[in-house]
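User: Hey, quick favor. My workstation is busy. Could you predict this chain's structure for me?
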Amino acid sequence: MEGAWIVPDWKAPAHVHAAVSTRQGSGISQPPYDRLNLGLRSGDDPAAVVSNREALAAALDLPGPPLWLRQVHGTEVAEAGVEDGDDEPVADAAVAHGPGKVLAILTADCLPVLFASADGGTIGAAHAGWRGLAAGVLENTVARMGGPAGSILAWLGPAIGGPSYEVGAEVRAAFVEGDPGAEEAFAPTRPGHWLCDLYVLARRRLAAIGVTRISGGGFDTYRDERLYSYRRDGAVSGRFASLIWTR
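Assistant: No problem, here it is.
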């Protein structure tokens, strides 16, 4: 699957590994989901998605099966090794302590955020759509990791970019009412609507809790054909995965 991954550019310890899948991997999903759709609840053939997940694990030589989540735009944080099993836990973030565990977040416009402690002993991953971001999913993930927030590294993965993401008043209010400075993430368009920069919002919320070692950002899933985008493709959009693991 050479060329099928986006590899985070950050200063995580050497034994911490991360990758983001794209549509270009050797999956078997047919149009309009082609090819490496990893979302079981996206409307694609479930057998194809299971095959794609197996191909992904083999291509990345993962040390174990990913902890897939049933994401609901909430703030719950699962823990690998505690909530593993046949059923995907209902959560929008996960953490893992110790080596050999794999975390995975599925997105198609929402913001995936990967975390690592400075020593690489703890990792985390979060699904931050605007609802989860406003409700505190990033803060909950950092808290569940433990340790000083200032020692945690964060990487902001592929999400819809500000120039492509128009939102209504309820989204702006969800952030600005608690943080007037969050206005910097919103640019007015037509009446009652703004362009929203999820990366600016995520950086503000992380900095507010002491996480300042932040990398990534600058993607736009809506404009990047390598990636799935729900806003661009609608209900037939697949999902790509942002993964982090340790060896």
